[in-house]
């Protein structure tokens, strides 16, 4: 029943760099940009007149199935590896069919509304996480435009690496005006979903280039990972990012991080910064984490005006 948040979260990182225009009250003002604290052209109930059923339709399909959204653009042919969908960082991303189904249904329900896939992605991310609560955990401001260009190089630039240290992660998030609290809170997305062996292989078998294992990794956990991911790395083999709790949105991920059982070096990096380490400890309380995650997702998908990097 859970749409994997790690899937949608990758898409949401692309929503951060978009802005939008859309429905309004008067004819010539239909595409007037509304400036507010949540980004150029974004507001609550953006499609209120043209598609009243938008949020209900997104929620119903997301729960039933358990950005500029440029990651959704298909290549022109099967040999084309230049789009974001085929970037190395995105090859494990699933869930495109959920977005396609929502878009198709909305096109039927609201044929005159130009609803962007970027807005659908932002709403789906919220509803996927909110499923256990049966109510939205944060507001989503809508009105984004979809990108028309998709480049694998942009995924390489915009998505943080699983091997990143804290300074690299912090610098990356700061590009989108997201701070250390956002970094630690949004890392909690790893409480849902799986990863694949190649992303952990160097950490397990050749961390410094001398055939060693990352000393920051709990020894028993490393043994378990090696049993699941023996050489050579099989890209089809999956590993829960939050063992035993990968289908539940909870704070269990932070328990694992404090025990040095984060799957990625980027998880372990949260303990190398004093503020981040305190936040990790704080977010072990689910209510504290849930509130912080909701605020950070609202910021990340709301695209404050200072975060707008391009208008497409």
UniProtKB/TrEMBL annotation:
Query: According to the UniProt entry, where is the signal peptide?
Result: 1-20
Q: Which CDD domains is this protein grouped with?
A: secretory_peroxidase (cd00693)
UniProt: Ca(2+) 1 binding residues: 66, 68, 70, 84
Which cofactor is recorded for it? Answer: heme b; Ca(2+)
Report the residue ranges that make up the Plant heme peroxidase family profile domain in this protein: 63-297
- Catalytic activity line of the entry: 2 a phenolic donor + H2O2 = 2 a phenolic radical donor + 2 H2O
Identify the enzyme class.
oxidoreductase
- Report the protein name in the record: Peroxidase
């Amino acid at each position: 029943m859970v749409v994997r948040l790690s899937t949608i979260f990758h898409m949401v990182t692309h929503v951060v760099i978009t802005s939008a225009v859309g429905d309004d009250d008067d004819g010539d003002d239909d595409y007037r940009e509304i400036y507010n604290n949540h980004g150029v052209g974004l507001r609550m109930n953006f499609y209120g007149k043209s598609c009243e059923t938008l949020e209900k339709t997104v929620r119903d399909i997301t729960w039933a199935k358990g950005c500029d959204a440029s990651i959704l653009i298909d290549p022109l042919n099967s040999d084309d590896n230049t789009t974001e969908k085929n970037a190395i960082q995105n090859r494990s991303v699933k869930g495109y069919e959920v977005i396609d189904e929502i878009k198709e249904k909305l096109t039927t329900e609201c044929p005159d509304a130009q609803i962007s896939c970027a807005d659908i992605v932002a709403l789906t991310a919220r509803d996927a996480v909110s499923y256990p609560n049966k109510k939205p955990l944060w507001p989503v401001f809508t009105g984004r435009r979809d990108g028309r260009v998709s480049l694998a190089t942009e995924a390489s630039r915009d998505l943080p690496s699983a091997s990143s240290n804290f300074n690299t992660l912090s610098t990356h998030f700061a590009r989108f005006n997201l701070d250390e609290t956002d970094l630690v809170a949004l890392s909690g997305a790893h409480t849902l979903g799986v990863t694949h062996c190649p992303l952990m292989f160097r950490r397990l078998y050749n961390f410094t280039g001398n055939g060693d294992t990352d000393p920051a990794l709990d020894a028993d956990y490393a043994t378990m990972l090696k049993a699941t991911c023996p050489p050579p790395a099989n890209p089809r083999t999956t590993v829960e990012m939050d063992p035993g709790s990968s289908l539940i949105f909870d704070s269990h991920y932070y328990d694992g991080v404090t025990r040095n059982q984060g799957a990625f070096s980027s998880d372990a990096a949260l303990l190398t910064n004093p503020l981040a380490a305190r936040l990790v400890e704080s977010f072990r309380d689910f209510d504290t984490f849930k509130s912080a995650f909701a605020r950070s997702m609202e910021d990340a998908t709301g695209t404050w005006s200072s975060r707008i990097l391009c208008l497409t």
